[in-house]
Amino acid sequence: MSALRQSASSSASEDDQRYAGMDEKKRKRMISNRESARRSRMKKQKLLQDLTGEVSRLQAANKSIATKIEETAERYAICAAHNNVLRAQTMELTDRLRYLNDVLTSSGLAADVADPLLKPLQTPCPMQPIASSGFFKF
Fold first, then answer.
1. What CA–CA distance (Å, rounded) separates 98 from 81?
2. Taking the CB of residue 21, how many other CB atoms lie within 10 A of it?
3. How far apart are CA 115 and CA 92, in angstroms?
4. Is-contact 19 30, C-beta < 8 A?
5. What are the angstrom distances between the C-alpha of 60 and each of 47, 113, 131?
6. pLDDT digits (tens, 9 = 90+) for 69-124
7. Of 88, 113, 89, 116, nearest in space to 100 by CA
8. Alpha carbon 87 to chain centroid, angstroms
9. Mean pLDDT, the chain, as a whole number?
10. Residue (of 35, 39, 42, 38) closest to 15 by Cα position
11. Can you tell me the distance from the alpha carbon of 35 to that of 8, in angstroms, rounded to the nearest whole number?
12. Can you say whether residue 108 is alpha, beta or left, with left for phi > 0 and alpha for psi between -120 and 50 degrees?
């Protein structure tokens, strides 16, 4: 900061010598304008440095998010493939069960075989009311 003041004071003294022949008002205005322009350039430089740092930080965050998206997409692809395998196995087992039920039905060995896979929302045994006892009192 002291180096900045020294350069400012040395530039001010150089400006004073350079503009000694001009009238006082015009000379002070030119010196003031030069100092204002210098401050403006320093402010722009600091803003540029801040924005450059922000760009770097955002690029790193973007790269991290892109990596997470890729990992998630890979896990999704693995799960989708596994799900397809399970669906195929379910279909195969359902077909086998139908075949076995047809064999049993046609041979007359079993007249009523419960098939929970063919009717997943139907329970294998009907719901019967549960008799309440006096054990729990409300």
1. 26
2. 6
3. 15
4. yes
5. 20, 62, 66
6. 999 999 999 999 999 999 999 999 999 999 988 888 888 765 454 555 555 555 55
7. 113
8. 31
9. 79
10. 35
11. 8
12. left
pTM, full prediction: 0.48
pLDDT at 12: 56
- State both tokens at 53: 């740092």
C-alpha pair distances (Å), 15 with each of 3, 20, 23: 18, 8, 13
Residue type at position 83: N
Distance between CA 118 and CA 93 in Å, rounded?
10
**pLDDT cut 90: percent of the chain above it:** 51
Mean pLDDT along residues 3-19: 56
